[in-house]
Amino acid sequence: MNDIAAAFALALALIRAADPDLVEIVALSLRVSLTAVALACLVGLPLGAALAVLRFRGRGALVLLVNVLMGLPPVVVGLLVYLFLSRSGPLGAFGLLYSPSAMILAQFVLVTPIVAAIARQVVADLHAEYDEQFRAWGIGPWRRVGTLLHEGRHSLLTAALAGFGRAIAEVGAVIIVGGNIDHATRVMTTAIALETSKGDLALALALGLLLLGLAFAVNTLAMVLRHAERGRAHA
Amino acid sequence: MPELVSPKPKPPPPASPLLPLRVEGLCYEQGRQRLLDGIDATVEHPGCTVILGPNGAGKTLLLRLLHGLLVPSAGRILWASGPQSEALRRRQAIVFQRPVLLRRSAAANIDYVLRARGFPRAKRPGRIADLLALAGLDDRAARPARVLSGGEQQRLALVRALALEPDVLFLDEPTASLDPASTLAIERLIRLAQGRGVKSFLVTHDIGQARRLADEVLFLHHGRLDEQAAAKPFFKAPGSSRARAYLDGRLVL
After folding, report:
1. Which one, out of A179, B26, B55, B196, has a CA that is 20 to 30 A from the CA of B3?
2. Domain limits at A119?
3. Which of B205, B204, B192 is nearest to B49 (CA)?
């Protein structure tokens, strides 16, 4: 019990002092996950909306694929990305393995299906509501995709947040393609795994607390944004 | 000569370019059920044609078929220039019982339709302001459409439908869930549109509203056209016994 209490005290001290190692790790985590989520939204939101609106051959199979990919274990994604990026892989020439770019790519692969699946659901619900009006106006499928993404912007924020939650919290993929290299590819989750196994509970706990705080901050922000947007007139 | 002493003769509305409308043997089936059964009608009156009938008679269905939102199982719908088409539908507009407003401001709702149809950008703000004024929503322009009151929402939906100056306006129970003041405002807008030469088809359950607005009545019953008549004689003495019962407020089976 005393050990835990001592570790907690140390962890809080580390956070309060803004320990440089700690700051570096948190900053890299945010950089990797935010970039990955931004890219995933760029691809996943239009993809999900298109799957909801467009009718084409193979659409059912694609929806199934997205849903399957959503449940991919991070270690499997890590392994696949590793194979692509390794020296003998198709992208080996770029030498990206064990770099933040590799981690961004892995998290992008992990998060895009989540964003796409949530976007598909959100947009499909909206489309059911608007379909008849769109037909009456003669709105084509591509314009519908754009309109519905805009109409669903509040709900789609949840897709981005769910993606961020998954990205920032996963260990499996980033440890395989990043390698948890100190001052290079060490992020919060990989550091927690390492420090815990080394017995340095203070740093692990400090990172854990920050991770928790981050989750609170992000969700609070989302809630505030949603309320603000609902109340504001948007022309 | 009773015509001369009638108090205020209604000026005849200008002719609508899409008329006459001919409906021939129109049927609509859903699964095994025949919901509309062999409707034949010719609509020539440029004013307001009210579609009346008890629940489940197929009024809303007929309206959607006329607008081309549904495809008939059999029969034809012919406007003056030919069968219903995408191009013809662009000269028509519909207002639903529950307005489908976009999640943006009142002004942006109108702007969306104008943009979708390629209305010149420079003229849009003026047009939007005119339409909002028409609906009495000048001071609501920047409000999110979805937080407007029910009556305001329907007024917005109606002027949004008028934004592209349709020749034909379809109205599906536009005042079904509105209070009398809002109903009055909607009816005023419908009359105004009519005065500008817009032909309207109105589905309503409100017999009072039908009396106020109708120039012509199509009375449906069980998916069939029971009676087509000019409004005045229809409300005075409907030809069919079922229409008489309906107007008397008796239950029509």
Report:
1. B196
2. 2-231
3. B204
Asked whether the beta carbons of residue A136 and residue B103 sit closer than 8 angstroms, the reply is: no
Report pLDDT digits (tens) over A135-144. Answer: 999 999 999 9
User: What pLDDT score was predicted for residue A155?
Assistant: 85
Burial profile A195-208: b = 16 or more Cβ within 10 angstroms, e = fewer: beeeeebbbbbbbb
**CB proximity under 8 Å: B 135-174 to A:** 141-144
Asked if B108 lies within 8 A of A235 by C-beta distance, the reply is: yes
pLDDT at position B1 is: 42
Partner A, chain B 90-129, Cβ-Cβ below 8 Å:
90, 93-94, 96, 100, 102-105, 107-108, 112-113, 116-117
Domain ranges of chain B: 17-247
B237 in reach of chain A (CB within 8 A): no
Total domains in chain A come to: 1
User: 3.40.50.150, 3.40.50.720, 3.40.50.300, 3.40.50.2300: which CATH number matches B17-247?
Assistant: 3.40.50.300
pLDDT at A233: 39
Give the list of residues 6+ apart from residue B222 with CB closer than 8 angstroms, or none.
B37, B56, B57, B58
Inter-residue contact B168 to B91 (CB < 8 Å)? yes
- pLDDT of A51 strictly over 50: yes
Residue B204 has, within 13 A of its CA and on its CB side, a CA count of: 24
What average pLDDT does this structure show over A172-201?
93
Let me know: does B134 contact B85? Beta carbons within 8 Å: no
| Mean pLDDT per 10-residue segment, chain B (253 residues) | 48 73 95 92 94 92 95 94 89 94 96 94 96 95 94 96 94 93 95 93 94 96 93 92 89 74
In whole angstroms, what is the distance from residue B149 CA to residue B106 CA? 12
CATH number for the domain including A215? Answer: 1.10.3720.10
The per-residue pLDDT for range A70-104, each reduced to its tens digit, is: 988 999 999 999 999 998 889 888 889 999 999 99
DSSP string, B55-104: TTSSHHHHHHHHHTSS--SEEEEEETTEE--HHHHTTEEEE-SS----SS
Q: Are B93 and A132 inside 8 Å of each other by CB?
A: no
Classified as helix, coil or strand, B117 is coil
B contacts of A139 (beta carbons < 8 Å): 116
Q: Which spans in chain A are helix H? A: 2-16, 20-53, 59-70, 74-85, 100-137, 141-151, 153-169, 172-178, 188-198, 201-231
Omega before residue B20 within 30° of 0, cis: yes
B164 closest CA partner among B198, B122, B201: B198
Would you tell me how many other CB atoms lie within 10 Å of the CB of residue B26?
Answer: 24
Q: Are B41 and B51 in contact (CB under 8 A)?
A: no
pLDDT score for B198: 94
